[in-house]
Amino acid sequence: MAASCPLPVAQDLSTLRTKLHGLLRFLGEALSISNAHTVDFYTESVWEQLVDLSPETVLAVLRRSAAEAEAQPAEARLLVEAKRGSGSTDFPKIFCETSQKLVSVEAFALAAKCYSVQNLGICTPLEQLLVALRGNQKQRTDKNVKPDEFMNLKKSHEVQAMSELISSVADYCGVKQIIDLGSGKGYLSSFLSLKYGLKVYGIDSSNTNTHGAEERNRKLKKHWRVYHRRSKLDVNVLGLQMARERKVQDEIKCKADNEGVCNSSKANQEKMSTSDFLPDFSGSVISNIRKQMENLHVHSHQENLYFENAFSIRDLLPVNAIESTSSQIPKRKMSETNKERRKMTSKSSESNVYSPLTSFITADSELHDIIKDLEDCLMVGLHTCGDLAPNTLRIFTSKSEIKGVCSVGCCYHLLSEEFENPHKECTQEKWGFPMCHYLKEEKWCCGRNARMSACLALERIAVGQGLPTESLFYRAVLQDIIKDCYGITKCDRHVGKIYSKSSSFLDYVRKSLKKLGLDESKLPEKVIMDYYEKYKPRMNELEAFNMLKVVLAPCIETLILLDRLCYLKEQDDIAWSALVKLFDPVKSPRCYAIIALKKPQ
């Protein structure tokens, strides 16, 4: 490995399993809430089945808990940490032992907070990791590069944070090749290639995404060149200003300066520094040059922007500032030197490219068939969808060329679950969940409704909102109408986004029935509105139930992430693995990255 600093201490498998065990005890009772489908909320009497409290009580407690956490975050965090620090996983009675109904909202909310990723104490701080990866190397930054000029703010935040981490891991492992799975539009791949000079293969299953990524990458390169030309122009302007400052001094001291140059020996010329070239420049001007050079990162050991037209300190100085040394080199020789330098720069830049590829990746994909020049590399994925995230980890553990992995998953509702339909025959051997031995032995199943509600709730938590109650209420009442008036208890077809296109509940029902292929003319307006009036007083039940789902959502994400981290801890050839909070959750709700490095061979 390129660096020698020890990586931060991460929690071992035994500790993680202990925390996983406590989480499973809580979710074993609480998952029934997340797995209840709001479409069937009234038809299946969900509130009566699962909650032994009034909706007013539930709403009041959860709103008070949220307000206290916002007004006094330190006190709320201390309460959670005290519970976690005691090592106890026993909370006041949350569910009734006989009916399994929720009986304590306060205990429910406290347990959910304790078992969130943020409060469970399983994350490695990002800053500690970056410091360890870089060692004594200077941090790569470029304040002048603004990716939000060609990305939205969310994507810009994600790409900058993840690319900085990937670059640091690549330097630590001594690799230059990156494989970006589920690369999509190619933002991360392009940024890694253009800013950090890494050779990136972006693989996506969609041919449309691949072609779009190629075009987008072409535009990004054009933007990058324009940015470079502007930066170089700024330096040239600085040089002209310096030349004007010196003009008056040159006229006065011309004779003295010429004598000084003639009397200077060849040895002294070879030892001349930047200050010797510019003896009459003020210290502030020299400082400005150096600061400008640092801001532009023109030295290869600092930030490399990997432009084809690299330039040296000669380009930063006025022409007459280095006349005494350049005059000794014939113009023809200088031209040949510049040509050779451009060839070397161009040849070097060819290795720092982004290549979009189209391929459907599974856990058994053979990378050598996809990437002909596969070498030691890192495998990364930014919001890899469904099973692609766990498959990324499986490929990492099975391929010797892959030295490290950085994976941020998403779309938990699309994960395949091994024990979700135990009686259904299936030839699939590798599943999205569970991955680790412990959960496989327990035959643990999360459930699609729970994973779906977690995804939706995480989005809402990020912006401080609950689930959209009225649209869910409309759908739940519609389901009761369909059951009573059409005799249909289960329907495979989806209503879709009709709510946003409807002017009223009546309009919503008629449009929905038409889309479902049901005769809406058989239902008079009065019948439809009678259902609305019947359930309107019970809308607060649905609102309170959805708030319970929102509170529980982070725990479901914790379960999925702990499963993946434990899987990596179980592998013999993994030197280090951890969970890192990579993004601001307000900007990017799925903000946790799984990082792992293999043992050196």
TrEMBL record:
Region (Disordered): 327-349
SUPFAM superfamilies cross-referenced by the UniProt entry: S-adenosyl-L-methionine-dependent methyltransferases
Domain Methyltransferase: 154-417
Signal peptide: none
Record protein name field: Methyltransferase like 25
